[in-house]
Design brief:
Layout: E1 12-15, E2 25-30, E3 34-39, E4 45-49, H1 50-56, E5 57-62
Antiparallel strand pairs: 1-2, 1-5, 2-3, 3-4
Bound molecules: zinc ion.
Length: 70
């Protein structure tokens, strides 16, 4: 099964790499050439290039549009 790789503003995604605070869930708070994500654990936000984000993202956990596959 192929994981969904599309995402949009407001989505909560699971990253392959865990944040130092212990969570790997990030919320997309800005989209553009670069993407700003906010850690749902410690509220720390980081700006990363889209290509790097797509590589590091594992899957979309919660879509802003509604639940996925439920
Ligand atoms: Zn964190």
């Amino acid at each position: 099964m192929v994981e969904r790789k599309t995402f949009q503003l407001g989505d909560v995604v699971q990253m392959k790499k865990q944040h130092p605070c212990g969570t790997n869930e990030m919320e997309i708070i800005r989209m553009g050439m670069d993407i700003r994500i906010k850690c749902t654990g410690c509220q720390h936000s980081v700006l990363i290039p889209r290509a790097k984000f797509e590589k590091n993202m594992k899957k979309v956990l919660r879509s802003a549009e509604g639940p996925l596959g439920q």
